[in-house]
Amino acid sequence: MRMVLKLFSGTKLIHKENLVYKGPCIIVGNHNSHLDTISIMAHLSFHQLAKTHPIAAGDYFGKSPFKAALTRFFVNAILIPRSRPKEGETGPDPIQLMIEVLQKGESLLLFPEGSRGEPEKFQKFKRGVGLVLEQCPDIPFIPVYMKGLGKILPKGDPVPVPFDSYMYIGKPVFPKGKTAEEIVNEVELQIHALKKEFDPLENG
């Protein structure tokens, strides 16, 4: 499976060694393309690949049983609802589902922006990653800044086009924030810091 994923990913990695983490963690990145998930999963070790679960929207990737099965088979994804059940409602709680994965000693791949945005433009980060890490203070996140993937396969375009792409991997970070809002802000700052560090290298 790892080789299949690599066939679809020609992304150049900077500081690949930072992706190697033995315990459970949350890999977080900016999100412009369906290739984002494949590119990260393709560069995990065999051990990490089996124990890392991308989080995907159940209403999109689970539209049909066939699509849901393909998503789970190819990238080991966990399909979750986009929002938590309101008071009086029943149904799975996406935050609790993610916490249970971490408590089993496995890892998550999460895009805090939610859905894919325009290439090279950041969207506002959502609270989900903060709510999870607030309940799991011993779990680090690994920030990832991706560039170019949104131009290879942008949202709404089914045909990929050739374009250079890069993935800059930050070191694992144990959040200092105590609240979900503080943690989300910390995650966002770390990814923006990678962008700021990375772009001068590319231009140089």
Comma- or semicolon-separated keywords:
204 residues; alpha/beta; seven-stranded mixed beta sheet; 7 strands
Elements, N to C (H/E): HEEHHEHHEHEHEHEH
Total number of helical segments? 9
Shape: globular
Q: Order the strands across the largest sheet as they lie in space.
A: 1-7-6-2-5-3-4
Helical proportion, percent range: 25-40%
What percent of residues are in strands?
15-25%
Secondary structure class reads alpha/beta
Average pLDDT confidence is 84
For the biggest sheet, the summary is:
7 strands, mixed
Q: State Rg.
A: 16 Å
Give the strand tally.
7
Low-confidence stretches: none
General description of the model:
The chain has a seven-stranded mixed β-sheet, with helices on both faces. It has helices at residues 2-7, 35-42, 46-51, 58-61, 65-75, 94-103, 128-135, 149-152, 180-203; strands at residues 12-14, 26-29, 52-57, 78-80, 107-110, 141-147, 166-169. By secondary structure, it is α/β, with parallel strands linked by helices.
Q: How do you describe this structure in short?
A:
By secondary structure, the protein is of the alpha/beta class. The protein has helices spanning 2-7, 35-42, 46-51, 58-61, 65-75, 94-103, 128-135, 149-152, 180-203, and strands at residues 12-14, 26-29, 52-57, 78-80, 107-110, 141-147, 166-169. It contains 9 helices and 7 strands, in the order αββααβααβαβαβαβα.
How are the SSEs ordered, and which strands pair?
Elements: H1 2-7, E1 12-14, E2 26-29, H2 35-42, H3 46-51, E3 52-57, H4 58-61, H5 65-75, E4 78-80, H6 94-103, E5 107-110, H7 128-135, E6 141-147, H8 149-152, E7 166-169, H9 180-203
Parallel strand pairs: 1-7, 2-5, 2-6, 3-4, 3-5
Antiparallel strand pairs: 6-7
